[in-house]
Amino acid sequence: MPWLLPRQVTPEAEETLTRFLGELTERLSDPATDRRLLVREILAEVLYGTSFEELAERAPMAALALDPANVTFEAEYYAATDQEKFQRVKPLLWLWKSLDQTPLGQSIHSGVRIRAALAPFIFKRVGKNPKFFQNVEFSVGYNLELGEDVVVHRHVLLDDIGGITLMDRVSIADYANIYSHTHDVREQADVTLKHTLLGTGVRITYHATVLAGVKIGDDAMVATMAVVTRDVPPHAIVMGIPARVTRYKERPDCPYCRRGEPHPADRVARPPHRKGNPDFPEFHPPGFGVLLAKPGE
Ligand SMILES: CC(C)(COP(=O)(O)OP(=O)(O)OC[C@H]1O[C@@H](n2cnc3c(N)ncnc32)[C@H](O)[C@@H]1OP(=O)(O)O)[C@@H](O)C(=O)NCCC(=O)NCCS
């Protein structure tokens, strides 16, 4: 039974949006397009109804941050970021974030379609029909892989600096956080990048957090507010801090379980962890990981 209802806007709005998205896709598909110029032009038009040049002349402060060249992202300050890849996607991440703050971005009808049009030009891989709601945050964008029919709800954080893969039909609910980097407990600047994988049909419910390097098996579900610190088996429901399996979904029709084969998420080749900061090579000093004194002793 369908549980989502179709919604319509006026034919004029539909036509205007379709034309805008067609032109946007065409221009982004052209390797000669200067993404910086394109983005500041679109933002000046959408926010102030004028050209960027005219705005810069008339209201320089309004124009200032519409130009991606005048903006910095947190990722640009990190040694772990591939600066070349980031510079390529940065203007489009700025367009995404800036439009999120406008009526166009807050409306589901236009916002979801605009983000679906931008996604293939930002992310590492995008399957059909990506659905992003407003105010989703990324670390770098270029390290995010999406299967088909992935849904990401409001205010989700996808920290993809170490790589995140969301397989087909993953659904991430409001305010959830998915990480792919971590810090050494003694040396904050010692950052490790770890690829994080959410298998086919995984559901992350509201406000849950998945730590870096975790693999969540196909069809598993993470309960609200859980903090997932370890891999989760397929079909499991996990809850709490740290998240523990409390039960499994009954799936007698699961072909992989029936044949005793690994599930699709178990077959994804994952890159090894790597240090995000050259000052901290792969080295564990003596005593690493040893609990010297138990609390209270
Ligand atoms: C996963 C979820 C659906 C619960 O699944 P469930 O296995 O059906 O769990 P139940 O509701 O039967 O609860 C089982 C037990 O776990 C507890 N529990 C439920 N959710 C919990 C959570 N998020 N954290 C800790 N404990 C939880 C219940 O209180 C109950 O405890 P009890 O046995 O001591 O009474 C629920 O935790 C959840 O996250 N809901 C979010 C809503 C949702 O579906 N969002 C989808 C958006 S895509």
In short:
The chain has 297 residues and is an alpha/beta fold. The chain contains 8 helices and 20 strands. The protein has helices at residues 11-29, 35-48, 52-58, 60-64, 83-100, 103-106, 108-122, 255-259; strands spanning 125-126, 131-132, 137-138, 144-146, 151-152, 157-158, 164-166, 171-172, 177-178, 181-183, 191-193, 196-198, 203-204, 209-210, 215-216, 221-222, 227-228, 236-239, 244-248, 274-275.
Description:
- This protein has two domains: 16-122, no CATH class; 125-280, UDP N-Acetylglucosamine Acyltransferase, domain 1 (3 Solenoid), CATH 2.160.10.10.
- The protein is built from eight helices and 20 strands.
- It has helices at residues 11-29, 35-48, 52-58, 60-64, 83-100, 103-106, 108-122, 255-259; strands at residues 125-126, 131-132, 137-138, 144-146, 151-152, 157-158, 164-166, 171-172, 177-178, 181-183, 191-193, 196-198, 203-204, 209-210, 215-216, 221-222, 227-228, 236-239, 244-248, 274-275.
- Strands 2-5-8-13-16-18-19 form a seven-stranded mixed β-sheet. The chain has a five-stranded parallel β-sheet with strand order 1-4-7-12-15, with no helix packed on it.
- The longest helix is centred in the first third of the chain and has 19 residues, at 11-29.
- Bound molecules: coenzyme A.
- Coenzyme A (COA) binds at residues 171, 173, 203, 205, 221, 223-226, 237, 239-240, 246-247.
